[in-house]
Write a structure and sequence with these properties.
alpha+beta, about 230 residues, four-stranded antiparallel sheet, 13 strands, Elongation Factor Tu (Ef-tu), domain 3, about 35% strand
């Protein structure tokens, strides 16, 4: 939550549940908010176990492993993130914030859905007009911002403070329910959003955001696909 660039970490097995383990701390990102799971490996006693899926369940982070041979509660392990996958998702996620910030400022729309991926990602907007040329123009504005290499910072504020700033919620559903300390991802000088995902530190790391396609998903709902170069 505080360092998206953390690639490896040491931890202790707290629970073993079926083919999953719970650690006393972790840097693996569980699938959430449209961002897919991290993958990687757990290393202990000279053995490597592939982490194929990570989910949050009942307040715990469960790491699904390829096998459980010899793993026990209390055992010390080293977690290693698949950095190539993580970093690509970080770039896609920050690109999503740039695009959603542009679409919001230019057209006053909110996000109605999203799904990140390593090849291409999508964002659904509450956009009234289905105008591909205008959408393409928004991508041009987004890439102009990327070229400025604005920095990206993460900080926390109280829910009460966040509710005084409606611009922090770019999702049509508003701020996440039940969370009192709101994590804010701030593209400094451009846009700040409440968010729980992983991000790059500066916009230049994104590369070029390319407009792939657009779909009409019903009244006032447009789906935008993008990729990165």
């Amino acid at each position: 939550m505080d360092d998206s660039y953390l690639k490896e970490f040491d931890a202790e097995i707290k629970q073993v549940i079926g083919n999953t383990i719970v650690l006393d701390r972790t840097a693996f990102y569980p699938a959430s908010g449209g961002q897919p799971t991290d993958t990687g490996k757990i290393i202990t006693n000279g053995k490597e176990f592939v982490v194929s899926n990570v989910v949050k369940q009942d307040g715990e982070i469960l790491h699904q492993l390829s096998s459980m041979d010899g793993l026990n509660v209390g055992e010390s392990v080293r977690g290693v993130i698949d950095w190539g996958r993580r970093y690509t998702l970080m770039r896609h996620h920050t690109a999503a914030h740039v695009l959603s910030g542009v679409f919001n400022k230019e057209a006053g729309v909110l996000i109605t859905g999203n799904q990140l991926d390593i090849e291409k990602s999508r964002i659904d907007f509450s956009l009234e007009n289905f105008d591909r040329e205008q959408m393409a123009r928004y991508f041009e504005i987004a890439n102009e911002l990327v070229a400025k290499d604005l920095s990206v910072s993460v900080y926390y504020i109280s829910r009460e403070e966040a509710e005084k700033n409606p611009s922090l919620a770019k999702l049509a559903t508003g701020l996440p329910a039940g969370i009192q300390n709101i994590r804010v991802v701030d593209i400094v000088g451009f846009d700040a959003q409440a968010d729980g995902g992983t991000h790059v530190k500066s916009l230049i790391e994104i590369g070029k955001i390319e407009f792939v396609s657009a779909e009409n998903k019903g009244k006032n709902n447009r789906r935008i696909y993008y990729t990165l170069k």
